[in-house]
Amino acid sequence: MTTSPGDEGKKNVRGPHRMTRNHWIDAAVEVMMKDGIDAVKIAPLSEHLDCARSSFYWFFENRQDLLDAIVDHWLERNTNAIVNRANTNAETINDAVIDVFECWANTKLFDPQLDFAIREWARKDKSILRFVDMSDNSRLSALTSMFERFGFVQEEAEVRARLIYFAQIGYDSLSNRKNRLDRRKTGPYYVFCHTGQPVTEQQVARLNQLLTQADPAQGNHE
User: Fold this and answer.
1) Is residue 27 part of a domain?
2) Which of 79, 158, 173, 191 sits between 20 and 30 A of 106, alpha carbons compared?
């Protein structure tokens, strides 16, 4: 489902409304997150984008091509965000975990609602479930390697990786009951519980800065 070199040219704008391939993908993702994958259809999307239906075919062969692009978008955004931040050149395991926490704090990096929508899709489509399983494995592998780099034995690293990952999935599922102000208060305790290492004042300050940058309005509540 990766984008072929020829698709790069298709990102160029065309037509009087200067529609792009990403406009279609973003609109499809928005509909999927709101109404499910079955609601992603070409005609309604063209109405939503206020463009001719024919413009769709400048960028996609058919609806399946668009669905494939949604999966690629999810992998690029959510999975790569976790993998990349688990592989930063952090000085300590606490700093490495805080790097990963940036994904949880900033929905521009990792969108939990997009993850939930893909997982809901996977419940009905085994081919998508295969991608979800591959994505989970990639994320867990990156987190496991992160702990191993700081001297945790493989078994412990695997357990800690699962704790940090699955705890976040549960946290996101209760997002309507929590907010980032809670995380500013409890974030250092999460870091300590995930690593077993005392959290320094500098790390607390960095974590709070990260959360404030992700949502500046929260910094005004203290």
Assistant:
1) yes
2) 158
66-80, 163-177, 202-216: lowest mean pLDDT where?
A: 163-177
Are residues 35 and 75 part of one domain?
no
Give, in degrees to the nearest 5, the angle at Cα 208 between 207 and 210. Answer: 65
Residue 209 pLDDT class (50, 70, 90 cuts):
confident
What is the distance between the alpha carbons of residues 127 and 150, in angstroms, rounded to a whole number?
A: 36
* Per-residue model confidence (pLDDT) at position 169: 84
How many Cβ atoms from other residues are within 10 Å of residue 46's Cβ?
18
If residue 207 lies in a helix (H) or strand (E), which one and from where to where? helix 201-214
Q: Which of 60, 83, 107 represents a domain boundary (last residue)?
A: 60
pTM: 0.83
Residues whose CB falls within 8 Å of the CB of residue 88, separated by 6 or more in sequence, listed in order:
96, 99
- Say if CB 193 and CB 186 are below 8 A apart: no
Handedness of CA 27, 33, 35, 41 (dihedral sign): positive
187 band by pLDDT with thresholds 50, 70 and 90:
confident
- Kindly state whether residues 191 and 113 are assigned to the same domain: yes
Whole-angstrom Cα distance, residue 66 to residue 13?
A: 17
Helical ranges in 15-125 per DSSP H? 21-35, 42-49, 63-74, 80-86, 93-105, 112-122
Tell me which residue range forms the domain holding 14.
1-60
